[in-house]
Amino acid sequence: MSQVSQRLRVARRVFVWAVIVSFALAALLGVIVLISGEMDDTAGRVLGTTTCVGFFSVAALCCVGVLSAPARAVGGAGIAVAAATAVGVIVLIWDGADGESFVNALLSGVVLTAALTVSSLLLLVAPIPVRRVRIALTVTLVLIAIASALLLWSVWDDIGGSEVLQRTIGVALILATLGIVVVPVLALLLRVSSSPVSAELAARLGRTARRRGVSVEELVAPLLDEPVGGEAASGQ
């Protein structure tokens, strides 16, 4: 395993644990507020902060999954946008910051966080060498991008009342949702039917990779790079 991959694995573990700990602390504060029975403005803000941290923590954890894949830029962007949006929402909850530009920025952050999170999850099926899956994945990612762009347009250009735009956004969201549901199912069915290894071996490789904190590709890469006995002998 290369030094870069090892550093990335360590950084990914540290980030995951940091997110889990922060979410646990926020959840603990929320439980304390509910048990205390004092539902004032401060309690409402604490619960709002807990919800915010929980939502964006889940989003960030979904994006972490592709940090070791070729599409790591999508996961990194998702984590950055989720963190920035979470900070903005918490500021809004506690400081009551207003202003149209600030609210529009938060709405844009929510849209981008959702789009990048879903895209990161879908990109986990990208390594599957089945053309139909890759085509469906590409079309779905394009639809997600189109729907996100239209939503951002409606937020910033104040044309949300346009009936044509609303219908277009609705169609794009419906088709994107269809792809989000179909792509993983299609990938699962085709991977099972066309897998060159048995399901038991694939499961063992998956368990070993998770135990070592690497992907299956990183686990088997050193074995693929080693020459076979016959090839080594002929090379001599």
Radius of gyration: 22 Å
Strand content: under 5%
DSSP helix fraction: over 70%
Mean pLDDT: 78
Features:
about 240 residues, mainly alpha, 9 helices, about 0% strand, globular
Topology overview:
Blueprint: H1 3-36, H2 41-64, H3 72-95, H4 100-123, H5 131-156, H6 163-194, H7 199-212, H8 216-225, H9 229-235
Helix pairs in contact: 1-2, 2-3, 2-4, 3-4, 4-5, 5-6
Describe the protein:
The model is unreliable at 228-236 (pLDDT under 50). This protein has a domain at 14-124. Helix 2 (41-64) runs antiparallel to helix 3 (72-95) and helix 2 runs parallel beside helix 4. The longest helix is centred in the first third of the chain and has 34 residues, at 3-36. It has nine helices and no strands. It is mainly α and 236 residues long.
Give the structure's gist in a few sentences.
The chain is mainly alpha-helical. Helix content is 83%, strand content 0%.
